[in-house]
Amino acid sequence: MGLGVAQKLIAAHLVSGDMKKTGEEIGLKIDQTLTQDATGTMAYLEFEAMKIPRVRTELSVAYIDHNTLQTGFENADDHRFIQSAARKYGLIFSRPGNGICHQVHLERFGIPGKTLIGSDSHTPTAGGLGMLAFGAGGLDVAVAMGGGTYYINMPKIVRIELTGSLPEWVSAKDVILEVLRRLSVKGGVGKIMEYCGEGVRTLSVPERATITNMGAELGATTSVFPSDDITRKFLRAQGRESAWREILADPDAEYDEYVTVDLSSLEPLAACPHSPDNVVAVKDAGNIVIDQVCVGSCTNSSLSDMLKVAGILKGRKIADGVSLTVTPGSRQVYSMLSRCGALSDIIDAGARVLECTCGPCIGMGQSPVSSGISLRTFNRNFKGRSGTTDAGVYLVSPETAAASAISGKLTDPRTLGKMPEIRLPDRFDVNDNLLIPPAPADEAASLETVKGPNIKEFPSSGPLPDSIDCTCVLKVGDNITTDHIMPAGAKILPYRSNIPYLSKFCFAVCDESFPERAKAAGGGIIVGGENYGQGSSREHAALVPLYLGIKAVAAKSFARIHAANLVNAGILPLVFDDPADCDRLAQGERIVIDGLREAVAGSDTLTAHAGEGASRRDVVFRLALTGRQREIILAGGLLNYTGSV
Ligand code: MIC
Ligand code: SF4
C-alpha cells in the first residue's frame, strides 16, 4: 500500500511510536521552529531555564508581529529580550515591521518535506508548502529548540479531494469556510487534513496556505498540501527554488476518512458571529449593514489577496459609514504593493493602511464601535476577541470584504460584474535586511539576555499530590476558547511575561470575579464542556490557572494543544466518563479525589466524590494520557520532568 503526503512526512521524521496505531503517541523529529512575541518571551525564558547553550534545530526563527502597539515600555522590553535571546541562542530574529510570522515563514524559510513547530496555533499555514507543521505551547517549542522530540497522538488522516476549479469571485477562504461549515470547529480534532485531487493544481501556494491556516479552526492537528510544480514556482519566485522537492501522495495511498469539495460549485461564504463554523452563503445572509472592514491577518494577507482588494477598490470610494483597514502580511507584500502602485488604489479609496503585523486580528487596536458589525478576512471571530465585547465579527474573503467596504453592507462580490484581473510577478522582491542572524557560537557564551522589569518568573508547580479536596471554582459551557480563558488584546497582551498581573484577566469574558474567587479558595477545579481550550496555542491559558492554584480541569473533551499545555504545566486534564455527570456538577460543589498518584501512574480512570451530604456521589473520570504524560503530571509539569530525566 502506498503512502499519502502526511504519512510520508511522518515516516521520515518518526522517532518513536507506530504510525499505524491511530490515537497512540508518536514522537517526531523537528527540523524548524518559530515563535512570535506574544508567546515567545515565555518560550525563551523556558529555554533559558533548560540551560542549553544553543538551539539544535536546522533553523529557528523568532518573529515580532503581535505586540507591536507600544503604549508602554513592556512590549519594547520584551522585543529586546527576544532579540537578545535569539542572538545568544542561535536563532534568526525577524524584526518588528518584517511581517506576520506565518506569511514571512512561507516566503523566506519554509521547505517542503520538513517539520516545523511554532508557538502559535496557525503554524500549520506552512502546510501550504508541503511542510508538516504544528502549533504548540511555548514549552514544547523550547524543548524542540533544544533538539527534543515533539509528541502527538497519531492522527487520523482525512483525504480532502478538491475537484473542479474556483469560479470568479470565489477564493481559498470560501473553500475553508465550506469545510468548516460541513465539519464544524470540532471536525478536525485528532485529524490531519490532506488536500488532494485535480483542484489542488488550480491553487497557488498562498491560496493553499489560507486553507491550511484555518485548519486550526477545524481543531485539526495540522493540514497539508502536496509539494508540486506550483510549489516549485512559488519558491522560484522567492529565489529559493533549490529548497523545492516533489512530495506527492502515492496513487494507492489509503486514508481514514474521505471528503470531496467541488471547487466549481462554491460561492462566497461568511462565518457569522461568534464562531468560524457558523457559515452561511453571503447572498443568503440578509441585509447586514456594516461599520468596519479589516483586510489582513495570517489567513489573507498575501500579495495576491492585497492585489485583489486593490483591484476592486481602484477608482471607487468606501461607504461613509465604514472604516476600512488594510494590513499587508509582510514587508515584501507591502513594498511590492507600493512599487506597483496598487497601494495608492487602496489609500485613495479611503483605507487606513496599517503596519504589517497581526494588528486588529488579536485586538491590537481597531476595536469596532459599540455593538458594531465588522467584516474581517481573519480566521477567528470569537466573542470579545476584537476588543469590543458586543461587536459581531463576520469572517469573509478579501473579495467579499472589499465589495462590502464599498457598499456599506455585507455584499456578494459577484454583484460587481467582472472580476478585476490580477497579475502576479514571476519574481518577488527579496529584501532580508530585517532578519538578524545570531551571534557566532564562540561569542554566544559570553552574551547575556536583557530582561526588562515587566519580565517576571513563570509559575512553578510541585509533584502531583496524592489527594485533592477542593471546589469547582468555575463551571463553563462547550467550545470555551483560549480567548475566554486568557484574553488577549492591546491592554492585556503586554503582560504575557508577567503572569501575576495577567491573572487578573483570567476568564474575564465569562466571569470577572473568577481570579479573586480562585485565589480566595486556594485554587480548585475548573469544569468545562466539549472542546475545552480550542483556538490559540497560548500556554498562558494553562500557566495562569496554575498560578491561581488550579489543580485539574474536568471537561467532556479537550482541544489538542490546550490539553498538552495543561499537562506541560502540571495541571491534570480529566475527561468525564459520563457527560451527564458534567451537566450535573454545579459551580461551588466540593470535589474530593484520593489515590491520585496511583491512578495517574497506571489507571485509565479515577473516581472522585462530588457534592456533600445527600447529594454526595461518585464521578468517574477518564485519564486520556500517554505514559509520558503521566510521568510529566506526576513530576509536576514538563520542566520538572525534563530536569529529572
Ligand atoms: C491567536 O491568533 O490567537 C494568536 C494570538 O496568534 C495565538 C497565540 C497567542 O495567544 O499568542 C495563537 O493562535 O496561538
Ligand atoms: Fe496573528 Fe491573527 Fe494570525 Fe494569530 S491569527 S498569528 S493573531 S494574524
Q: Mind sketching the topology for me?
A:
Elements: H1 5-13, E1 14-16, E2 25-28, E3 32-35, H2 37-49, E4 59-63, H3 73-89, E5 92-94, H4 101-109, E6 115-118, E7 132-135, H5 138-145, E8 150-153, E9 156-163, H6 172-183, E10 191-196, H7 205-213, E11 222-224, H8 229-237, E12 257-262, E13 269-271, E14 279-281, E15 292-295, H9 303-313, E16 323-326, H10 331-340, H11 342-349, E17 352-353, E18 373-376, E19 392-395, H12 398-407, E20 435-436, H13 441-444, E21 468-475, H14 482-485, H15 499-502, H16 514-520, E22 524-527, H17 540-547, E23 550-555, H18 560-569, E24 572-576, H19 579-584, E25 590-593, H20 596-602, E26 605-610, E27 617-622, H21 627-635, H22 638-644
Helix pairs in contact: 2-3, 2-5, 6-7, 9-11, 9-12, 17-18, 20-21, 21-22
This protein binds alpha-methylisocitric acid and iron/sulfur cluster.
Alpha-methylisocitric acid (MIC) is lined by residues 38-39, 66, 120-122, 135, 362, 488, 535-538.
